[in-house]
Amino acid sequence: MAKPCIVLHGGRVIDPALSRDSISDVLISDGRVVAIEANLPPPAGATVIDARGWVVAPGLVDLHVHLREPGQEYKEDILSGTRAAAAGGFTTLCCMPNTVPVNDCRAVTELITRRAREAGLVHVLPVGAISQGLRGEALAEIGEMKDAGVVALSDDGKPVMNGELMRRALEYARTFGLPVVQHCEDSHLAAGGVMNEGPAATRAGLRGQPPAAESAMVARDLELLAWTGGRYHVAHVSTAASVRLVREAKRRGLAVTCEVTPHHLTLTDEACASYDTSTKCAPPLRSPSDREALREGLADGTIDCIATDHAPHAAQEKELEYDQAAFGMIGLETALSLGLRLVAEGVLTLPTLIERMTSGPARAFGLTAGSLRPGAPADLVAFDPVATGTVDRARFRSKSRNSPFHGWQLPGRVLMTLVDGQIVHEASRG
Amino acid sequence: MTPFRHRHVLGIAGWTREDILQVLDLAETFREISERPIKKVPTLRGRTVVNLFLEPSTRTRTSFEIAAKRLSADTINISDSTSSTVKGETLLDTARNLQAMRPDVIVLRHSASGASAFIAQQVDAAVINAGDGLHEHPTQALLDCATIRKHKRPGATDLAGVTVAICGDIAHSRVARSDVLALCTLGAKVRVAAPRTMLPVGIEALGAEVHDRIEPAIAEADVVMMLRIQKERASGPGLFPNTREYSRYFGLGSRAAALLKEDAIIMHPGPINRGVEIDPAVADGPRSVILDQVTQGVAVRMALLYLVGGGFQEL
Fold first, then answer.
1. Which of B196, B213, B249 minimises the CB distance to A171?
2. Is the CB of residue B238 less than 8 Å away from at least one CB of chain A?
3. Which of chain A's residues have a Cβ under 8 Å away from the Cβ of B229?
4. A155 tagged catalytic
5. Would you call B196 and A172 a contact, using CB atoms and an 8 Å cutoff?
6. Per residue in A314-331, is it b (16+ CB within 10 Å) or e — as a string?
7. What is the average pLDDT value for chain A, to the nearest integer?
8. What DSSP string runs through A244-308?
9. Is A144 on the interface with B (CB under 8 A)?
10. pLDDT in tens, B235-283
11. Strand-pair category, A409-419 with A422-426
């Protein structure tokens, strides 16, 4: 059955990959973008959607989510996670391999892609494990996983502490054309820490993780990258030092990219003083000066993209003493609004924000997503950039509720998300 | 006959095209001896060849012993388990003691790179390197050249125009190093292919074209040489996930073999790990010259023993 012909009429179309920011119509047919022009005459039989006052952009791309399936479906599953993604304006997700069992072989990769196809909402591109079982000992079956569809490699959640394994991973991944994504955290330096080390941790009496736990590993890996070649991506940078190291490495011409989370751009370690366990995450929320460096890095392009690190946890894993609670927070349904809040604060322009959530991440992993160029799959988001709303965790599509932004007044409302020309999310009217 | 320029055979590095061709040409004249009913000539009568093999070997040790015996030399074999190194003797002391017994040639196989060069400085005998660590295995390279010349350039002098793909654990292979040097010196085009974990840094400086997948390396190649994974020399987290994935992407199975030129030949220095770097059907198939390499090995080693062991001109 041919997919419907749709015209999004009169929206502000922003596609940084095409350097486009103009009031235009978007013609979609057979699941693909056909044309973007002002005042396109709609073909006979086309559904015309009035997009006046909306921003129409490529569907958002998130390089870092935890969909928890297989194995931890009580936290999230591929269906609930992709529903949350569609509601947040995301059309492509890269899901991390720390499932049960770990995605370290073809069979698990194929299971994830099949389940995502069955869910039928957004594109799910699995990230394969670097090491077998995330144990940090021996390389996983990287070639086989690449053939099964993984787009990157990571032991996310578990840093690759063994420098030789990291070196071999960079070399072996290069052989198969995959980027290596590192959760930078020296586990000896970070051991026992539940928040950022600094005055806030001292006041709260919580054990801190020094910022160097992250940047020391970034520095080591960049030296390895310089020696091996290959492609390297720093997951969720959180410190000023990490941003500086990546900036210098890019200047040296290394093939390094990095991402930052909406929560590290928004919150600081002061938020942990409430002992609200939804603020507990890895890497931890950092100091105000780190947050400032992250914002600068995002604006100047040192940081390639925003990625949510959407990390669902069940209530029983969070309703605990701060020391005992699980690390991580969800983010798919608040990311765009938190980004628009940065735009409102003047941290970056709206087109730059969209770049950092579409073509920026796509480029980092070498994905074809993130642009509305004619012929591309019609993956797009339409949102109202000014309407404000109150974050209500009871309304999340995610199975989990661990968001520190519950009750926040935030700008932006996702009105419609299309994947391959099909509407996968539509805001209720009114 | 031109005198041979080298007193020892320590490596191909430093050898000229003429040095290599001298060995190959002489080996051709020796090849016929092994086809005779009485496979023996008196050339090295009264000479003593010590095979000092301090690392496991079947092919190379036997090949040297047969080569020496067919030239009528007296041969003594010392292997790891029969040597005093197991009693804690150093290589230097072993060499000095052997020297005291006045051998003419010492053939050394050792796990340490540079061992042959070290011994060569300490003894009067000629030293032939039968494989030292990750460094060189010159006699293997020479027999590989002889095999390639016989099959791909019959009647010609050098290997100009021949493309050779060497695939596998290049990082740990002394055969690869010697082969790259010898083949390039003879004008062949050499490609090496391995996952990047098995490509030693700077291998291109030896003259090889570097590939990280075998498909582009073996396509249009006249010769494909597969190497064993040298597990005994690897350490740490490993250079590949497991043999299953390795054989799928880097082994010469039927899928990869289908990419070969019709008349390509397949070589392997041995020992073969069947089902890992090469499928049994390919190793035993019509394009395989693996056993002919072994035959060439005897002739090449006869030539080398003759050249450095002080043989007579008459055969």
1. B196
2. yes
3. none
4. no
5. yes
6. beebbeeebeebbbbbbb
7. 97
8. HHHHHHHHTT--EEEEE-HHHHH--GGGGGG--GGG--SSPP--HHHHHHHHHHHHHTSS-EE--
9. yes
10. 778 999 999 999 999 999 999 999 999 999 999 999 999 999 999 999 9
11. antiparallel
Q: What is the domain partition of chain A in residue ranges?
A: 6-56+377-426, 59-365
Q: What token pair was written down for B137?
A: 């295995």
The CA distance from A125 to A113, in Å, is: 7
Tell me the fold of B138-294: Rossmann fold (3.40.50)
Structure tokens at B285: 């198939």
Average pLDDT, chain B: 94
Tell me which CATH homologous superfamily contains domain A6-56+377-426: Urease, subunit C, domain 1 (2.30.40.10)
Q: How many Å apart are CA A386 and CA A407, to the nearest integer? A: 18
What is the pLDDT confidence band of residue B315, given thresholds at 50, 70 and 90? very low
Q: Return the domain boundaries, chain B.
A: 17-137+297-308, 138-294
Give the gyration radius of chain A's Cα atoms.
21
Residue B152, amino acid: K
Contact B147, B188 (CB under 8 A): no
Q: Which residues of A touch B170 (CB under 8 A)?
A: none
Closest residue to A172, CB basis, from B197, B213, B242: B197
Specify the residue for token string 């010392």: B78
Looking at CA atoms only, how far is residue B167 from chain A in angstroms? 14
**Does A139 lie at the interface with B, CB-CB under 8 angstroms?**
yes
Question: Quick one: fold of B17-137+297-308?
Answer: Rossmann fold (3.40.50)
pTM of the full predicted structure? 0.94
Chain B nearest CA to A133, separation (Å): 12
Quick check: B240 and A139 CB within 8 A? yes
pLDDT at A366: 98
Whether the CB of B255 is below 8 Å from some CB of chain A: the reply is: no
What ipTM did this prediction achieve?
0.90
State residue A162 phi and psi, 5-degree precision: -75, 110
List, for residues A188-221, the tens digit of each pLDDT value.
Answer: 999 999 999 999 999 999 999 999 999 999 999 9
CATH architecture of A59-365: Alpha-Beta Barrel (3.20)
Nearest by CB: B237 against A143, A168, A174: A168
Instruction: Tell if the CB–CB gap between A143 and B213 is shorter than 8 Å.
Output: no
